[in-house]
Write a structure and sequence with these properties.
Blueprint (H helix, E strand, L loop, with lengths): L4 H7 E11 L7 E6 L21 E3 H10 L7 E5 L7 H14 L5 E4 L4 H5 L7 H7 L2 E4 L19 E4 L14 E5 L5 E5 L3 H11 L1
Parallel strand pairs: 2-4, 4-5, 5-6
Antiparallel strand pairs: 1-2, 1-3, 6-7, 8-9
Helix pairs in contact: 1-3, 2-3, 3-5
The structure holds iron/sulfur cluster (SF4).
The site of iron/sulfur cluster (SF4) has 13 residues, from loops.
Amino acid sequence: MLLDRDDLGALGLRLAGSASGSRVNGPGSRFVVWVQGCTLGCKACFNPQTHAPNADVTPTDELARRVLAHRAESSSGLTLSGGEPFEQAVALERLVVDLRRDWPTLNVLVFSGYTLEELRGPRAPRGATELLAVIDLLVDGRYVAADASARPLRASRNQRLWVLGRPVHEPLPAPLEVEVQIGPSGAILVSGFPDARLRRALGELAR
Ligand code: SF4
């Protein structure tokens, strides 16, 4: 049976990866979920391996258990990145609602390539309104490689940081911060905001 996006939202989400205790993907120490799949095609995207919608579906309740198990070292909240989170908005809204039953003060930050105007407009991805209603912070807009930003949490100058829910009192990470985590299997995870030189070096290593 071929599942469409609505069926997928009812089951779970395509996941590219996750990390706990991250200090560069939002204020404080956070659990980060990177979703798999993005149709926006920004030139020189830092995460091209997340574009194809080809990951297995992870049930949202399984992912919620994973987030809660790491609550102590990710006490500042949850960051949703990608890939494009709003292309799986139905499943992510369900994840946030489920998590807040056990963690009512959970702060949620989303990095999206869509602008807030697109997400509120008539051509918004399905579930965008509902996901916008449950998140606290949004960094929006396509990545424009030719217009790099040195502001915290924004990779290019067109991108904006919106407070849509509860304000955050922890400081934002410093601009251009990069984090390297080594997983239990030895896999190396690089995230954050590398400058152009580091992006090029990482691109060479990935080949
Ligand atoms: S929206 Fe994000 S993941 Fe998608 S192409 Fe642009 S930078 Fe890459």
